[in-house]
Each structure stands twice: as structure tokens, then as C-alpha cells.
Amino acid sequence: MNEARPRVLIVEDEPDMNKLVADVLSAYGFEPIRAASGEQALSLLVRDTPDAILLDLMLPGASGFELSKHLKSARATRPIPIIILTALDRGIDWRYAYETGADDYVTKPFTPEGLIERLQAVLEVAAATRAARERCNNMQSTIELTGTVADLKGLNPLITCLYGRTDLAPPQIEALRSGLVQLSDAAGQWAAQHGGRAPARLTMDFSSQRLRLALEPTAEDGKAFLAEHLDAEAGLPASFIDAGVIDTVTARDGRVVMEKVLPPCGC
User: Fold this and answer.
1) What's the number of domains the chain is made of?
2) Domain annotation covers residue 192
3) Which residue, 22, 35, 78, 117, has most beta carbons within 10 Å?
4) What's the pTM value of the predicted model, to 2 decimals?
5) 144-168 per-position pLDDT tens digit
């Protein structure tokens, strides 16, 4: 990141809003780069890498959802933090944005101070993730699975590490993401029927040599949840099986540990 003047790509088709956001960024010491469509943004990204992207959802041609998914599925652009900046404020829009890999979601109208605070926050997270990735340090985090957008935000750093520091094929990484998102969705349905309690927690442990995912019930009845939503024979989310995402599975006392030895990375 350019510490003196971080560069932020604005993808917004409405000219007045595009200029307003650019003016706000300039006033707070950022360098705005302006695009009016996803196509124009992609053209700019071919020759330039901004420190962050502010992305509208309602764009001509490809939507902001599509652009976010495309950028977060490519190794070169995956590490760039994306903040969705939109007038859409439905829960389904928030959830789908995080499913595409977006890092934050800000609704219009916004306050300049609020937008800059959120922008600085994602830049700090990106810097920490980049430092950990460059040093190949372990990344470990735990999520209580409740089917909320917090689950999706918790998964995104792991997916970023897999894209940035492994040679796993993109379809394998997306199969991993899909399986965990489906498990989160199922946990949300379960929690809604059990007073909001999370049925299980997921611990993610990533290094340059190994990926380890541990699922454990948060209560006795959580064992039934895991038994229902993991493949009975393989002990894995169904999407993991055909993609070859996991090498070994160990199950004991309701706790399931899945491990993958990662190939040497040429990145």
C-alpha cells in the first residue's frame, strides 16, 4: 500500500456520486481513480493495482456482484479489499456481497467520516493479511456458525490466503468456500429453531504447508447437526469430496478434523 497517498478505485456509474466520492477521498488524503463501469474498472486493473476498491452494485453491463466475484476469484486481484458502496440495503444483498468475497458493505447515503473510517479499517486488515502472507505465518481463527454475514466475513481471510499463498486450483478453493457457506446456511436454520444458539464452531488453521479445519459441536445436540450435514461416509461437506479439497478426516467425540497438505507454492 502507498502509505503517503493510498490509491482507491471508485466504480460508480452515476457521475455526480462518482465525483462526490472522489472529492471525499481527496479531502482525506487518498488518491481516487475513477471508473464508470465494471468493464472500465477491469481495463484499469490490467495496468494498475489500487490499494482498495469502492464498488457500486447497480452498474451498466456486469453488476457489482459479478465484478466482486470475478476480482475475488483471481489471484492477482483477490488481495485488494472491496467495499460495496450502494443504495441497496436488503439483507439478501448484504449476504450475497459477502459471498462474492467483498470485505465490507456501506449504504448510501453515507457520511464522509463513516466511509473513511470503514476504508481505513479494511486497509489495515489487508496490510495485516499481506504481512502474514508474505511471512507465511500461521493464520488461525474461529467462527461460531450462526448463518450470519459474520460467518462470511470470517471465512474471507482464509480464502484470500488460499488464493495468495497456495497453488490450489481455483475450483478447489471455490469448492471449499461453497461447502463452508452451505454449512453456515444450515447452521443459521438450526440456530433459528434453537434460540439463536450456534450448533457448531469452525476453527481454521492455515500455514504454507497445511490447511486444517476443525468442526466441533457447541453443545450436545450440535453433534446431530454435524452428523446431518456432513457426508455420512466421508465425514465432509459434500462439495469437498469431488474437488479433492481434503486429504484426511479424523472424527472423535463429535469433533471432525479435516486436513489438506498444500503443494509448494510458486507464488
Assistant:
1) 2
2) yes
3) 35
4) 0.65
5) 999 999 999 889 888 888 887 787 8
